[in-house]
Design a protein that fits this description.
By secondary structure, the protein is of the alpha/beta class. The protein has 14 helices and twelve strands. 38% of the residues lie in helices and 15% in strands. The protein binds pyridoxal-5'-phosphate.
Length: 379
């Protein structure tokens, strides 16, 4: 079955009413038919019929055997980190969602997990970071916000040889463009808040795995720690996913046009978009994905231009988050990446000139016209 069809139909069987859309089961608990018997559902922290259909869907889209739906992307990252114990070592990308860094540094490291951050785009750096106690590598590709591309097949090969897990946060490209499990990764994580749900109206997170032992371990963590997605929110994500392919195409169309347009603006110093042929990760990205997504980072000539642009756009809104129908622009150094030290920001190019744009699905001309008026008004 093609991906677009799966987005609509891979939900598992519908109930006997003939309802085209899944029922929303607002029940915290489920009655047992008799002693020692169950309907398959016992208590909503463990599983819920609406949420189970979403999990079936997301597992199908990522080509995994099991998915779990969490109350946020960070809850999913946190559950995965619960697989590790004091003394374990994890290699992470040095450019990640800011909240993941915050979790690793302030909570996991304090609990005895050891971290080394590397440029995951550079295989030599990964190899050099491996230790006898290395249990996993955690990465994003493209990274947030500097859009670095990492070779998932090559990294998975290194991980297999050294017996550690590959964990990929696939929020930016979604399975529409990139399927990390098929490329060799062990665990995929999503902030479902972003492209999967896609409408800036719900928080959700996912883990997806392709191997039963890992599925069992994560399900145990999940039902024990309880960061489960509610049935109403699960329904919203199911509805969002139906149009994922259409939305991703329009996000990408807008991003491609805007990246090219930004490159021609005198106040723009450089544009980071993996769909640009001169992007250093262009070839690797092309070899492992079917697209480049809708996220663009770009640097302007100075901090004052950045400020005036953020305040000057009208259709595009100055807000955190990404992957929704509405275009959003943000300022990583002041908004999403405040947990990094100034030195770390400088090393990664997260300067006071760098802006991150999540292109929505509005008409391309309107978005470019909005950016154009904001640039024109800069004093
Ligand atoms: C937003 C985001 C997260 C965190 O997800 P929440 O749903 O906000 O908790 C994790 N990873 C990436 C890449 C994100 O963009």
């Amino acid at each position: 079955m093609e991906f677009a069809t799966k987005c609509i139909h891979s939900l598992g069987a519908n109930d006997a009413t003939g309802s085209i859309t899944p029922a929303i089961y607002i029940s915290s608990t489920f009655a047992h038919p008799k002693l020692g018997d169950t309907t398959g559902f016992n208590y909503t922290r463990e599983s819920n019929p609406t949420r189970a259909r979403l999990e079936t869907l997301v597992a199908a889209l990522e080509e995994g055997i099991d998915a779990l739906a969490f109350s946020s992307g960070m809850a999913a990252v946190d559950a995965v980190m619960n697989l590790f114990a004091p003394g374990d070592h994890i290699i992470t990308g040095n450019d990640l969602y800011g909240g993941s860094f915050r979790l690793f540094r302030n909570i996991n490291a304090r609990n005895g997990v050891e971290f080394t951050t590397v440029h995951t785009s550079k295989l030599e750096e990964i190899k050099a970071a491996i230790k006898p106690n290395t249990k996993a590598i955690f990465l994003e590709t493209p990274t947030n916000p500097t859009m670095e591309i990492s070779d998932l097949r090559a990294i998975s090969k290194i991980a297999k040889e050294n017996n550690f897990l590959v964990i990929v946060d696939n929020t930016f490209l979604t399975p529409y463009f990139q399927k990390p499990l098929a490329l060799g990764a062990d665990i995929v994580i999503h902030s479902g808040t972003k492209y999967l749900a896609g409408h800036n109206d719900v928080l959700a997170g996912f883990t997806v795995v392709k191997e039963q032992t890992l599925a069992d371990k994560l399900r145990l963590i999940y039902k024990t720690t309880g960061a489960c997605l509610g049935a109403l929110d699960a329904w919203l994500v199911i509805r969002g996913i139906k149009t994922l392919p259409l939305r991703m195409e329009q996000h990408q169309k807008n991003a491609t046009a805007i990246a090219a347009w930004l490159q021609k603006q005198p106040r723009v110093k450089y544009v980071l978009y993996p769909g640009l042929a001169e992007h250093p990760g262009y070839a690797v990205n092309k070899a492992q994905t079917s697209g480049f997504g809708g996220m663009i980072s770009f640097a302007v000539d100075n901090a004052e231009t950045a400020r005036q642009l953020l305040e000057g756009v009208k259709l595009i809104q100055f807000a955190e988050s990404l992957g929704g129908t509405e275009s959003l622009i943000t300022y990583p150094i002041r908004q999403t990446h405040t947990d990094l030290t100034p030195e770390e920001c400088a090393e990664k190019g997260i300067t006071d000139c760098l802006l991150r744009l999540s292109t929505g699905i509005e008409a391309t001309e309107d978005l470019i016209a909005d950016l154009a008026q904001a640039f024109t008004d800069i004093q």
